[in-house]
């Protein structure tokens, strides 16, 4: 996959996730760690807005490099939410556990994709 294709794929993913945070915040609220500042809803809205902003940066060639760096940082920043989801879902049915645990290693390719886009300029 070329850096351009990676940027477009990440942009689509982030724009979609950001929109979901705004339209259906409840599932995201439930996985905000207790130690996060503010309320769970505030964290959901802020992370959704960040996803929309970063996705928009990736979509525009003029801001793509900065968007790549921002993607890597954002994916690292939201990782505790994925850990919290895995912790909360550890007693659910195996398909739900597979989703929760499967999200953990998927964060690395997202971070590396952001770095790839950033380095390609």
Automatic annotation (TrEMBL):
It is a multi-pass membrane protein. One of its GO terms (cellular component) is membrane. The keyword Transcription does not apply. Residues 8-78 form the Methylamine utilisation protein MauE domain. It comes from the Bacteria. Keywords: Membrane, Transmembrane, Transmembrane helix. This is Membrane protein. It comes from Corynebacterium sphenisci DSM 44792.
